[in-house]
Amino acid sequence: KPRGFSVIGRAEALLFLESRSISTLPGVGPAGAAALERNGLKRIGDIRAVGAQRMRALYGDWGGYLFALSMADDSRRVDPHGERKSISAETTFFEDVADIEALEDILWPLCEKVAARCRASDTAGRTLTLKLKDARFKIITRRRQLPEPTLLAHRIFETARELLAGDADGRTKFRLIGVGLSDFSDATFADRGDMLDTETPKRAAAEAAVASARAKFGKSAVQTGRALKAERDE
Known about the structure:
- By secondary structure, this protein is α+β, with helices and mostly antiparallel strands.
- 44% of the residues lie in helices and 21% in strands.
């Protein structure tokens, strides 16, 4: 597939890299690629041909780093068990959507997915991100830090809905919506509320019960009110 991956031996690496575009190197974005191309460097083999000394003279430490990569020398550590940075879910629409209530109906199951993934990994997030893409393909990202870590779909949804209200005016059309959590901590620290907050523990217990039922009998075994409404509107 385009931009897929291959497994090769070290002896084959130099030949493999020779004709690859410089934009495939980590750390080379559009601006970096343009700067390299101004000096005639379009392929990884071009960097190798210029040599380490010249690359450092032109681009400093970055030039030396790129030359090392062109020689298949990459000292970056690979950690297959690295800490997860975010848990998110998003969807692209078949047709652009401007109606606020329709956007909220689409947002709710995404929040449920994020909550379920947090619950499965026994983790909770404190920073919520809402992602939108409008009809002109402009990506809009909004973030909000929560008072405490959460893995509750209801709390994720209410916060995301507040952020959505700042951009969805009923006229602007969107073609994608997504929501995610980051800044994680252990689930035991999630959704504790305070002494005056009696609703959060009830909500947490209800969502835990729903998750347990779905784990035993399937996702369709329990449907929330908003999900049922969305089905009726289809």
